[in-house]
Amino acid sequence: MSDNPVMLYDGVCNLCNESVRFVLKRDKKHRFRFAALQSRAAQELLATHSVTAQMDTIYLLMNGQLYDRSSAALRIMGRLSALWPLMAVFLIIPKPVRDWVYNKIGTNRYRLFGRTDECQIPDKSVRRYFLDLDQD
What we know:
This protein is of the alpha+beta class. The protein has one domain (about 5-130). The chain contains 4 helices and 4 strands, in the order E-H-E-H-E-E-H-H. A 4-stranded mixed beta sheet has the order 2-1-3-4, with helices on both faces.
């Protein structure tokens, strides 16, 4: 596995899939890799950190550290182009406060944004950034 940061997300969540598209569009240096929490790759990565996937969060594996919830989201934004890295300033807010807001959205994400019956398959032009997918 490379040293690229890896975003682990709920592959059937519309909000999560839109977040992946958001990151892909703003990751001008193509640093990020992605894996749906439902994939074997994500399960193996989480297992190396003794973590069982919780579908209501995103995870970020970066520089050997595993981040979750708001910590993952803000660190992801910190690596994007344009002004998005400014969002990382919110890391100064205590994690319990940040995660309370994150959890309110996470708990209601299916109701608010919907879900699909199965993990979406990314377009061939970006498939190489996804772990555990055929590269045909």
